[in-house]
Design a protein that fits this description.
alpha/beta; Rossmann fold; two-stranded parallel ribbon
Length: 310
């Protein structure tokens, strides 16, 4: 059965945020969808916001829309999470350009893509959504503010349907775009929970916090899915989905609210967790499996060729 912690935060909205002057937030995929809306919220509270994305033109267009929302600086960083070399180059550049990162927000992702591989030969959805962010975090964790900064991992209600098959991790046999997606979002939450446990064991003040956007209307449902899924989302996005702005509330909460706790998971709390008031969300037991989380962590380190030390 799924479990949850005792609710600590309910009915959250961005009005609960304090002034964020002097705090830097680096968000992957901040040029569109949930990431862009979260960037807008943070910028409007005077935060320094760095959008990391692979498309420079789209990144610049997004920056133009948030640069005047507050008094903080807004900058762009090139990053392709499906390319290990790009991730390493971006981390090096981030170290040279930015100081301490208060919120390292792992938001970017792909959904229900046809069978594809990353530049490093990984299955695209696991490779981008989990392994790309795992390597990114491994390289950036030393830059996260040790006085209470946080790593934010954006998962999904889809994690409740995921399964990690270590014998077929790259889905070389029986590829299915939906199973691949749910597995990648389960991997996100397993990672966030394991990172929390390791930070806590190390006595670190850095937090690992996860969140999900519920069912939100973004381009994600149309960039990856094909055929029947794409046609279905054309209808359900209009009828069932909430605006991306509301879907970004959990990300802003996890990234910037001082009440957000390490190990926490935040998102909509209405029917099926798809929409509704934002607060403490339900984590399925499969995402709390410490044995699976440790094995995934160790395998991820081996695959990306980088230890994530806390």
């Amino acid at each position: 059965m799924p479990t949850t912690r005792n609710p600590l935060i309910r009915n959250w909205t961005p009005e609960a945020l304090d002034d964020l002057s002097g705090k830097t937030f680096l968000i992957t995929g901040g040029n569109s969808g949930i990431g862009f809306e979260a960037a807008k919220i943070l910028a409007s509270r005077n935060a320094d916001v760095v959008i990391a994305c692979r498309n420079e033109a789209k990144g610049k267009a997004a920056l133009a829309k948030i640069v005047n929302l507050g008094e903080g600086r807004c900058e762009l960083l090139g990053l392709d999470l499906a390319d290990g070399a790009s991730i390493r180059a971006a981390a090096k550049e981030a170290g040279e350009r930015f100081g301490a990162i208060y919120g390292l927000i792992n938001n970017a992702g792909v959904m229900q893509t046809p069978r594809q591989k990353t530049k490093d030969g990984f299955e695209m959805q696991l490779g981008t959504n989990h392994l790309g962010h795992f390597l990114w975090t491994a390289l950036m964790i030393g830059q996260v503010d040790g006085r209470g900064g946080r790593v934010v991992t954006v998962s999904s209600i889809a994690h409740k349907f995921g399964r990690i098959d270590f014998d077929n991790l790259m889905m070389e046999a029986g590829y299915d775009p939906s199973r691949s997606y749910t597995r990648s979002k389960l991997a996100n939450l397993l990672f966030a929970q394991e990172l929390h446990r390791r930070l806590e064991a190390a006595g670190s003040r850095i937090k690992s916090i996860a969140c999900h956007p519920g069912y939100s209307d973004t381009a994600l449902q149309f960039k990856g899915p094909t055929g029947l899924f794409k046609a279905l989302y054309a209808v359900t996005n209009k009828v069932l989905a909430q605006p991306a702005k509301l879907g970004a509330y959990p990300t802003a909460l996890a990234a910037a609210d001082e009440r957000a706790v390490s190990g926490g998971y935040y998102g909509p709390t209405g029917p099926f967790d798809a929409r509704g008031p934002v607060g403490d969300a339900i984590i399925d037991d499969r995402a709390r499996n410490e044995v699976t989380a440790r094995r995934l962590w160790e395998m991820s380190e081996e695959l990306v060729g980088e230890k994530l030390a806390v």
